[in-house]
Amino acid sequence: MRLAVALTLAAACARPALPGPASGDPAQPGVTVTLRWTDPVDLDLYVTDPALETVYFANPRTASGGVLEHDTRCADKEVGEHTERARWTNPPPGRYRVGVDFLEACGARVREAPWVLTVEIDGGRRETTGRARLAQRDPAVFEFTVPGEDRR
Q1: Distance from C-alpha of 4 to C-alpha of 82, rounded to nearest angstrom
Q2: What radius of gyration, in Å, describes the C-alpha atoms of the chain?
Q3: Cβ pair 2, 27 in contact under 8 A
Q4: How far is Cα 151 from Cα 135, in angstroms, rounded to an integer?
Q5: In sequence order, which residues have a C-beta less than 8 Å from that of residue 119 and are 6 or more positions away?
Q6: Model confidence at 73: pLDDT above 70
Q7: How far apart are the first and last CA of the chain?
Q8: What's the CA gap between 39 and 100, in Å, rounded?
């Protein structure tokens, strides 16, 4: 069953979310949050669940079932797209907050890096974009809510 999900932008986000579900993608149960960027820098994804536990590089598994599936580091930097991804297969209901941190320039002379954030909930998909600034963590670039229905 596809759940109706309310996605809202955090006030800190300067750009609106792009509308619409992903076309042609099969429905995926659960929640997947993906951060993508192309500059040769180390951006970090932070997703805080309704119990206020955050999945990120130093806490790759949460009690609520959140897992950091992919963590890109400076050593991984090559030309092209870079990603970090967190996932819950059976996410608890409530509010989630997504943050982005520009941890390191990895030897590049980049002080600001554009990113794209995709949030997929039970096959529905929303995207937003932003810019991360070196040594500035933005703890709330996007917020979304998973409704309280039984998800099993």
Answers
A1: 30
A2: 15
A3: yes
A4: 38
A5: 7, 31, 32, 33, 98, 125, 126, 127, 142, 144
A6: yes
A7: 10
A8: 14
What is the pLDDT confidence band of residue 2, given thresholds at 50, 70 and 90? very low
Torsion of CA 70, 119, 48, 148, to 10 degrees: -130
Q: Which two tokens stand for residue 81?
A: 């797209």
pLDDT for the residue 15: 32
Token code pair at residue 10 = 């955090």
Structure tokens at 32: 């997947």
Q: State yes or no: pLDDT of 25 exceeds 70.
A: no
Task: Map out the domains of the chain with their CATH numbers.
Answer: 7-146 (2.60.60)
Phi, psi (degrees; rounded to nearest 5) at 8: -130, 145
The answer to whether 121 and 2 are in contact (CB under 8 A) is no
